[in-house]
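Q: Give me the 3D complex with iron/sulfur cluster.
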Amino acid sequence: MELYIHIPYCRQKCRYCDFASYAGQDGTMAAYVDALLREADAMAVNTKDIPIKTVFIGGGTPSTLPAELLQKLLSGLHERFHIPAGSEFTSEANPGTLTPEWLDAAISGGVNRLSMGMQASQPELLRTLGRIHTQADVETSVQLARKHGIGNISVDLMFGLPGQTPDMWRESLDAALSLGVEHMSCYGLIPEDGTPLKLDLDAGRLTLPDEADERRMYDDTLRILSAHGFQQYEISNFAKPGRECQHNIGYWTREPYIGLGASAASFLQTKSGGLRLTNPAGIREYIAMADEQAWRRRERVSLLPEDARFESLMLGLRMTRGVSEADFAAMHGLTLDAYCGGILRQQEQHGLLLHQNGRWALTRRGMDVQNAILVEIMEATE
Ligand code: SF4
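A: Here is the predicted complex, encoded as structure tokens.
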């Protein structure tokens, strides 16, 4: 069982962001933390004795929470859930918002891993994205976290940005490497409808790099990070040996999780497939739901066995280690071969999938066309 807590506050809304995150709502923070603990009470009724393998505080920007509220939240979680000492306990934090007081509260509450949004090293790209920080802020924040004893730090970077060239991307990778972090997530930009960035792209005020440049950026990522001792373990994620994010691996292997907070989802495995509960995305709507204990307002989706099988493949193929035949059979009571063996072997012949040691994984070429492969599997298994 994993635990996720969503903190939906940001200093300023980034121009590409469509997450449940809000600027100018800090006045609701105290009530929001109370609501999180109320939801934790409700979720802990049936899960109190199940050890929590990993905790992830995401957002939004968790480092905008005042230290005393963070402290209240973390001690409240420890009172309600069984979080064994040493469990991976991550919080996202953004450069420009990290303070010594916040770090003290985080560390005394069990946080042992930080994930920071760096995105790019060039001021002009940070401006295009609407980020509030500079590269100097990133460096200061990493140094501050190290000084406080955080030994496991990840940074997020983005490629395929408007105005970004492969040279600029390599420069950002170099800047991230010089921070000496243990983990990097490198995401290709997906312009989301309704964001200011997408409106600028649609109006021709900004232009994306062409496909060849974007592919070069991804290939450079694999080459450069591998040369610096990072292993790719998922399409967008790279880690020094032993520093892979266990929380995300749990998500890709369909480990059950409890999600607390606005827009957060919980996933519980059931005999018939699974149950996903999703909270409302608005801060006030979420607080009202918690105040009234009206948990029935969550969106409730039951996963059928066929949905669960497809989800195992869709999530598992994101990882370089791929999908284990033994784990698939144990989880679904059906062999992977019986489920979609024909289509997997066909993709293997096309050089898109690799079958070895009882696992199916995407090849490098397969990663580029992952969605097309999944569509074929979906159509073949319907
Ligand atoms: S810091 Fe993250 S969550 Fe907040 S607005 Fe920017 S991208 Fe969105």
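A quick observation: The chain has 15 helices and 15 strands.
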